[in-house]
C-alpha cells in the first residue's frame, strides 16, 4: 500500500530529528524541513496528507502556516507542536482547522498514538474510495451511472425495449439524461450499425423544419441551390432522435406522423416519395397530454410515438446515486483540467446532499466542473462551490439554479482573471491556476485569449 505522506517542520534540527525518529512508522513517508516557507512550497506542490509543525518559527509561524494550508486544502491534517502552550492559542488553532495541538516536550507514545489515529483515518478514506470506485464501475450502464432502484428499473426497461421498438417516447425533467437513454436504446438495438441522428426541435426555425427533416430539391425555395438530404434519409437503417419534441410546430407534426406511418419521406419541392427504414426516439421535459388539451400537440402523433414510454427519474428520486455521480464527475473534470482533485470534503458533500437539484444531473455536473476548475486543492471544499448553493433558502429548490454560466464561459473568465493578475506573464498565470504552462497555453489558444485580452 502506498504510504501516507507527512511533512514535518521545525526550525530546531535536534527537535526535527527526534520527531522524525518517533514518527518512523511503517506506512508513513516523512519529509522534514527547517524552513517553514520552503516547507509550504513543498506542501503546495506535493499535497501531503499530514503536516506536523512547530508553532514558534522565524519567518512564518505555525499558525500562519496553518492558515495557508487550510486555504490551500482543508483536507490536510495539520498538527501544531509547541513549548509555548496556552489555552487561547490551542482554541485558535482548532478553530482554524488544526487536527490537534500538542505541548512540548512531546511524549513519543502520545505523539505516535495521535498520528496513528490520523493515519488510520486516511487509510480508511482510501478503502472507502476503492469501494466507491468498484461500485461506480459496476453501476455504469451505457454511459449512465446509477445504483438506485429507480435507475435499476430504467436500465432493465431499456434492455427489454431496445431490440424491438420502432418509435418510443422518453420523458423526464431537464437534465435527467434523456439523450443518454436514447443513445443506450440505439446501441442496444438492431439499428446500431446505422447512424444516430439527433435534432433539437427547440433550436430549429419553424420555416426550416420540413427541409431539415425531409430534405429539399434544388430550387424548392430561395437559397436552395442544390439538392439536400433530410435527417430522415440520413438516419436510414438507424435512429432519428427528436429532442424536445414538444416544441415541434403543428404543421410539421402532421408530416412527421405521415412519415412514421408510411416509412417514407418526400423532399420539399419533389413529387417523388423515398422509402426509409428509421427507428424514432422522441424526448421531452414537457407534459404532452397538457399540450394536447391546449391544442398545441397532435394526439395521434403522441400515441404513435408513445406506444412505449420511458421516464427518466429526477436526481431527487435516485437515493444513494449522488456520491457515485460526484465521484464520476470529479474524475472527469480532474482529468480535463489537469488537476489532482480526488473528492469533496465532508462539509462540501453535506452542502450537495441538502440541495434539491432542480437541474438534476446536468446541474450537478456543472457544479462539480465549476468547483474542479476553481480549486487548487486535492479536495473540493465549500468555497469552491457556486455561491447560489450557499445562500439562505437554497435548500428548498432555488429559482434559476439551472441558469449557471456554462463551464466554457467560467473557464475563459478564470483564464482571463489569472492572466490579468499575472500581468500577461504565462508562467505566473500557470502558478496562480496551479496548472502546467503547456496546459495554460493550450487553454489560452482554445479560448483565443491573447495578451491584453
Q: Given the structure, what is the number of helices?
A: 18
Distance between the termini: 47 Å
> Can you summarize the main beta sheet?
5 strands, parallel
Number of strands: 18
Computed CA radius of gyration, to the nearest angstrom: 29 Å
What is the domain tally?
3
Strand content: 15-25%
CATH superfamily of the largest domain: P-loop containing nucleotide triphosphate hydrolases
CATH level 3 topology of the largest domain: Rossmann fold
Widest sheet, order of strands:
2-1-3-4-5
Low-confidence stretches: 394-403
Structural class: alpha/beta
The coarse overall form would be: elongated
CATH architecture classification of the largest domain = 3-Layer(aba) Sandwich
Helix share bin:
40-55%
Fill in the keyword field for this structure.
5-stranded parallel sheet, Rossmann fold, 453 residues, elongated, alpha/beta, 18 helices, Helicase, Ruva Protein, domain 3
In brief:
This protein has 453 residues and is an alpha/beta fold.
Describe this structure in words.
It is a single chain. With 453 residues, the protein is an alpha/beta fold. The protein has 3 domains: 132 residues, Response regulator (Rossmann fold, 3-Layer(aba) Sandwich); 166 residues, Rossmann fold; 131 residues, Helicase, Ruva Protein, domain 3 (Orthogonal Bundle). The protein has a 5-stranded parallel β-sheet, sandwiched between helices. The chain has a 5-stranded parallel β-sheet with strand order 9-12-15-8-16. Strands 6-7 form a two-stranded antiparallel sheet. Helix 2 runs parallel beside helix 3 and helix 15 runs parallel beside helix 16.
Amino acid at each position: 500500500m502506498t504510504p501516507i505522506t507527512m511533512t514535518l517542520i521545525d526550525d530546531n534540527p535536534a527537535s526535527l530529528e527526534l520527531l522524525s525518529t518517533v514518527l518512523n512508522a511503517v506506512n508513513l513517508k516523512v519529509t522534514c524541513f527547517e524552513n517553514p516557507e520552503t516547507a509550504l512550497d513543498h506542501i503546495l506542490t506535493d499535497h501531503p496528507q499530514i503536516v506536523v509543525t512547530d508553532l514558534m518559527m522565524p519567518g512564518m509561524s505555525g499558525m500562519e502556516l496553518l492558515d495557508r494550508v487550510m486555504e490551500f486544502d482543508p483536507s490536510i491534517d495539520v498538527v501544531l507542536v509547541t513549548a509555548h502552550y496556552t489555552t487561547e492559542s490551542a482554541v485558535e488553532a482548532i478553530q482554524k482547522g488544526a487536527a490537534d495541538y500538542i505541548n512540548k516536550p512531546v511524549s513519543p507514545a502520545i505523539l505516535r498514538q495521535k498520528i496513528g489515529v490520523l493515519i488510520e483515518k486516511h487509510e480508511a478514506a482510501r478503502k472507502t474510495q476503492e469501494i466507491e470506485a468498484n461500485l461506480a464501475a459496476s453501476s455504469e450502464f451505457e454511459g449512465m451511472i446509477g445504483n438506485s432502484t429507480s435507475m435499476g428499473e430504467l436500465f432493465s426497461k431499456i434492455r427489454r425495449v431496445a431490440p424491438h421498438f420502432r418509435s418510443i417516447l422518453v420523458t423526464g425533467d431537464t437534465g435527467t439524461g434523456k439523450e443518454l437513454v436514447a443513445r443506450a436504446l440505439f446501441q442496444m438495438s438492431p439499428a446500431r450499425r446505422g447512424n444516430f441522428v439527433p435534432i433539437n426541435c427547440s433550436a430549429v426555425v419553424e420555416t426550416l423544419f420540413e427541409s431539415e427533416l425531409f430534405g429539399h430539391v434544388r430550387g424548392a425555395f430561395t437559397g436552395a441551390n442544390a439538392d439536400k438530404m433530410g435527417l430522415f434519409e440520413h438516419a436510414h437503417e438507424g435512429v432519428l432522435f427528436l429532442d424536445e419534441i414538444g416544441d415541434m410546430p403543428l404543421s410539421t407534426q402532421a408530416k412527421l406522423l405521415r412519415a412514421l406511418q408510411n416509412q417514407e419521406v418526400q423532399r420539399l419541392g419533389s413529387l417523388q416519395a423515398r422509402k426509409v427504414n428509421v427507428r424514432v426516439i422522441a424526448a421531452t421535459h414537457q407534459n404532452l397530454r397538457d399540450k394536447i388539451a391546449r391544442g398545441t400537440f397532435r394526439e395521434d402523433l403522441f400515441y404513435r410515438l408513445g406506444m412505449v414510454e420511458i421516464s427518466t427519474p429526477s436526481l431527487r428520486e435516485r437515493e444513494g446515486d449522488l456520491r457515485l455521480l460526484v465521484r464520476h464527475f470529479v474524475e472527469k473534470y480532474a482529468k480535463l483540467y489537469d488537476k489532482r482533485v480526488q473528492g469533496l470534503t465532508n462539509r462540501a458533500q453535506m452542502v450537495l446532499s441538502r440541495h434539491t437539484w432542480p437541474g438534476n444531473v446536468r446541474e450537478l455536473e456543472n457544479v462539480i466542473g465549476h468547483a474542479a476548475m476553481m480549486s487548487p486543492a486535492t479536495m473540493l471544499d465549500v468555497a469552491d462551490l457556486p455561491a447560489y448553493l450557499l445562500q439562505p433558502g437554497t435548500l428548498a429548490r432555488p429559482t434559476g439554479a439551472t441558469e449557471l454560466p456554462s463551464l466554457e464561459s467560467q473557464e475563459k473568465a478564470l483564464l482571463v482573471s489569472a492572466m490579468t493578475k499575472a500581468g500577461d506573464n504565462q508562467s505566473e498565470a500557470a502558478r496562480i491556476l496551479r496548472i502546467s504552462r503547456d496546459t495554460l497555453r493550450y487553454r489560452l489558444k482554445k479560448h483565443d485569449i491573447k495578451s491584453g485580452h
